[in-house]
Amino acid sequence: MKSKKDMTVRRVTVYVLVAVLFAFAASVTVNIFEISMSLLKIDQHDEVDLPYKTIQIDWTKLYPFENESIQYPTISPKKASFWESFPGLITTFKERIAAYTQERLLFRLKFIETASIIENFLGASYIALNEDEDYLYASVARIDVTECAESLVNFNDFLRNRNIPLLYVQAPDKVSKDDAVAFTRNLSNRNADDLLSALKGAGVFTLDLREEIHRQRLVHHDLFFKTDHHWKPETGLWAAKIIAERLNASFGFDIDTSLYDPELYNYQVQDGFLGSIGRRASLGATRPEPFTFIFPKFKTDLTLSIPSRNINERDDFIVIYYKELREYMSKGKNIYEKDYYSVYLYGLNPVTFMRNNHVASEKKILVISDSFNLVVSPFLALSVKNTDILNLNGFTGSVRSFIDKTSPDIVLVLYSPGGISYTIDHDFDFR
Q1: Engineered SS bond to 113: which of 14, 247, 284, 415, CB 3.0-4.6 Å?
Q2: Are the beta carbons of 385 and 364 closer than 8 angstroms?
Q3: So what's the pLDDT on residue 276?
Q4: Side-chain half-sphere CA neighbours of 31 within 13 A
């Protein structure tokens, strides 16, 4: 005989499914006209009216590949006719339908929140650490990192022929090696260990920030957001100091690492941040948390250039912040839109240049990284003349051509364990 609790859960499930089906039908009806108008460009507009929109740049033309056979495909300047574009319009129409039903389903967030509450009630939650129900993580499988390691080793050989050192910096994952799930559901640390082992065996310089966390006896979980996979900006400042110390010790830099003492900064805390994992889990499973914007107390003078956003501005440290986006988020009421992480350095961009107009050092560094770098390079830029950044997931030109044109004194490759993929694809393609 079924228990009363089981019957209640089944009844609630049926009600939710019926409501979802009803909302699905209503959403398709309401949004079909808007989708059509968007496709026909009759009423096409951005949801967020902010400056510095992304523009397309032919990076392959600016930084061409020496071997034409390996360059990435570029957008053809030829304008296709309507009939040539028709198959693509059909595909786009189908994708828009899927996007609307997934992201703009009527009452979608309420359904997700309700489902999360029911899931937690039944004890079926699988994204929170047992000892901290608010600390959310994502599952990561064990992978073969051989191709990524070989790509980095080949890149190191290329740089060595130009007398440019390479330092691979391993950022930590929010799941530490001591967490139980590090041996079951989140194997990101195992992947990072495999990659570091291969690089060390090939003579590539490495810096494992996970070891520094352990050596300094820091509380690992305090370094990360509870609802997001990223580390906190305060952790980015800490990481910048560790990297600067290594640059001094191994590569002949003369950085005043006291610049990175936390007491030399002001901290502006913004409430209401819900990270990427928290947005998927919804407020039914978690709650918003604070987000920090950091400002040096000492004098700064930086020039920030982001070609793909048509930005070339000079100011103090505030220049690294997308202040219009921050203001928009602070005024908005939708907690699911408040991704404050993208305020740092205007989010991920293919190419970013920072110049420090206030230091005598002429050192130039190139940082190739994922989004973890958004809260690291701004602080590194406080101690060297030039800091260039490449995001290989958006940069389609030749990395080697970029290096030959910019001549950095060192190349830092900084990736989180989650950024290590099965294949080199763009993130680990250093050609």
Answers
A1: 284
A2: yes
A3: 87
A4: 20
